[in-house]
Amino acid sequence: MILLPVLLPAAAAVIAFFIQAHGARRFLLAATAAAHSLLVAWMWVDPARFLALGDWMAMDGLGRLFLGITSALFLAVSLYAVGFLRRESGSTAADSEEGFLFSNTPEALFTACLLGFLSTMTLVTVSTHFGLMWVAIEATTLVSAPLIHYHRHHRSLEATWKYILLCSVGIAVALLGTYFIAAAVPRGSGGVSSLTFGRLVQRASELDARWLKAGFLLLVVGYGTKMGLAPLHAWLPDAHSEAPALVSALLSGALLNCAFLAILRIVAVLGSAGLGEFSRQTLLVFGLASMAVAAGLIIGQGDYKRMLAYSSVEHMGILAVGIGLGGTGDWGALFHAVNHSLTKAALFLLAGNLLAVYGSKRISDVGGALRRVPVTGVLWIAGFFAILGAPPFGAFSSELAILRAAVSSGSWVVVVLYSLFLAAVFAGMIAVLVRMAQGGRAPGSPARGQAVRAGAGHAAGGAPGFGPAESHGLAVAVLAPAREPVLGLISPIVLLAGTLALGLFVPGFLASSLEQAIRLLGV
Amino acid sequence: MTVWIEGFLVVFMITSLWLLGSARLLSCIAAVSVQGVLLAALPLLIGIDAPPWRLFLQAGVSLGLKGIAFPLLLLRAVRSVDARREMEPLVGYSLSLIVGVALLAGSLAAGTRLSLPAQGMPALLVPSAMFTTLTGLFVIVGRRSAIVQALGYLAMENGIAAFGLALAEQEPLLVEMGTLLDAFMAVFVMGITIFHINREFDHIETDRLSSLKDAPE
């Protein structure tokens, strides 16, 4: 029964690969996503029905939380994907930056990989054996590589190669770490199931501390590469900026969490072995480093998709800091993972809408979004405030909880650095937001020919409504609003509404799930 | 028997040096596949406490993948991109060999000091695992050809698998097979990507894949 959410998308992936009709395949994608969500919802309501499979797979508090996020996100993304594929599929498009022609990955392969991605991520969340979890995480890398290379051109290829190589090497290091953990288990105790999460936590006092510590470091470096913790994040901005928007949304909102889950599990093991201090300190350092690097690169960033990618690095850093502090920080980090996933996925999907209309990822080419694409523009602003942790969005309470944990830990260095980096990112992103939503580019230097033509046309017509105050942003201001596809808007609206609702109240089922997850994390 | 195994491990380490010093792609592929074959035979030699059918199954699958499937996949990739020889690596071959010898010395010094939880493991097992892993890493960062980087990944994977023999109590069969399957898929996906890289750029030198960076506004 517990295998069902893993096997369902896997089977759908195989079927999708062989379906010829586009319509049927897109329906299958959305239907599978919906069925998966229903199944996961059932798991949340009635976990007793989903029995553990030996020591290998079980649905514990941690796994359930992250499976919930993944499944909900995938549902939202699959709706968006239907619209996206209808727009993009099978065509040869001109590249927006360099103007060459490229084709897309065949839609059947793309859909199959999407579904396979869901299947492998589900496997990560339900596996409680460190070996099996490793297999699942490596599998997520491999099925998602073709997704990044959807637009077949040299930049996406470069991103894909970096992604495969860096993540594979990182995960190989994690395998070594897993073996080290195995070496920490005293001989002849448990055999096959010696590497299960439950056993390791239960018998943590018998583990050899030196091997455990070394294994932990290797696992953090390995899975940290996948999670995007600085300085191991090199693949992340490239992959996120070159992948299609919906893939970036999944990478950022779901995949990074899977790696985080793996790290959480090993932190729990170290915690019960009495090495909590050591493991949490390590994460704290990685977390602050990630926030610092991200803050430095967000300020002055010229590409809005890369900016969102660095924002993901920042938020992974926040999660690591939260866990590093412990206490309220645990709650903050887990709750923040939920908020970050919802918000960042919405933002990436909106970035896809902007890219479709403006044809450029450069911030300087996007101006007057509020007038050109009003709905996307408003959502984009809301999303920015949500991701920056402004009230009343969910990220506000989770970031505040982490700050409180920092204050109560009494480590003022952490308090100062944490607030400083948050403030720096806030300043950097707000500056960008104002320009994208409101401004136009300086008169006389419009980058897009389209804008000039439209502007000139209106100017020649002597548009009477424009006073002198507006004329200085003319090229952008007079562009007619572009059509905004409904399917591209529903998902971001729902996701943002979700994070807004979480800021106002935490529903009971989520609160109890967070509590269970925290109990697993231990002290 | 022990002398025999230690000799075997020495040969295992020599394959890493072979990979480091080879300029021809075919020779690099040969080095890694010989390494894979040796690795596949290793569990049979060092007397792991497990039913014989399991050991043979594991060795068989490992041999099939690392000794036969991977080399064939990579050979296909080499043929499709028509690149026989790596041009100017980032780190020259003689320097690579010197680095290799240094890594070897380091691994021997560090690896023999490590006190293993399991008794009765050959003394050279951990040093050779460490050396192979590090060599793989070095090849990934020190070479530009995507195929050689993929080979470096395989060598690293081999080294880690050898670590696994030394450190882990018998891993469950499912995990063992999953690990192998993942390695297979990784090589497969890398192979396809190499093919695309070549079609797109007419070369497979990854340091020239450098158009993605943080552009200021």
Give the secondary structure arrangement, pairings included.
The complex is a heterodimer of chains A (523) and B (217).
Chain A: H1 4-18, H2 22-45, H3 61-88, E1 92-94, E2 101-104, H4 107-126, H5 130-148, E3 151-152, H6 154-184, H7 197-202, H8 209-227, H9 235-242, H10 245-272, H11 276-298, H12 304-325, H13 328-358, H14 369-372, H15 374-387, H16 394-409, H17 412-437, H18 449-460, H19 468-471, H20 474-477, H21 487-504, H22 508-521
Antiparallel strand pairs in A: 1-2, 2-3
Helix pairs in contact in A: 1-2, 1-4, 2-3, 2-4, 3-4, 3-10, 3-13, 3-21, 3-22, 4-5, 4-10, 5-6, 5-10, 6-8, 6-9, 8-10, 8-11, 9-10, 9-12, 10-11, 10-12, 10-13, 11-12, 11-17, 12-13, 12-16, 12-17, 13-15, 13-16, 13-21, 13-22, 15-17, 15-21, 16-17, 16-21
Chain B: H1 2-21, H2 25-45, H3 52-81, H4 93-113, H5 125-142, H6 146-167, H7 173-201
